[in-house]
Amino acid sequence: MGKADIYHFVQPQQKIDVSGVIRNKRTNETMQGVTITLLDDSNFLIDEAISNEKGEYVIKLEKDKKYILYVSYKNYQFERYNIDTDNLIEDMHFTRDFFLVN
After folding, report:
1. Which of 10, 16, 28, 81 is deepest in the core (most CB within 10 A)?
2. What pTM value is reported for the model?
3. Which of the four CATH numbers 2.60.40.10, 3.40.50.40, 3.30.70.1450, 3.40.1000.10 does domain 16-100 have?
4. How far apart are CA 23 and CA 68, in angstroms?
5. What is the pLDDT of residues 63-84, one digit of tens each?
6. Separation between Cα atoms, residue 66 and residue 74, nearest integer Å
7. 7-16, 29-38, 57-66: lowest mean pLDDT where?
């Protein structure tokens, strides 16, 4: 009997994320310590991040999902942003800056 060459390839996982800077809308100053909450389309908590000293945040996402991003800070109006990663065929980076109002 002959030997069969069997190959197995693992496709690398796509890299998908969303990042941005959070600022005070009135002063345009960056905001540290802002909570960024990632929910799925059923409103289940997926991840949470806190903006750094430069007001920056990054959250990793998965392919073929719908997300809701909530940005909140004490005594400020929250912001919401919908993200859809359905049918992406390559790595994707979403950029979304927020300007919060107090």
Report:
1. 16
2. 0.82
3. 2.60.40.10
4. 20
5. 999 999 999 999 999 999 999 9
6. 27
7. 7-16
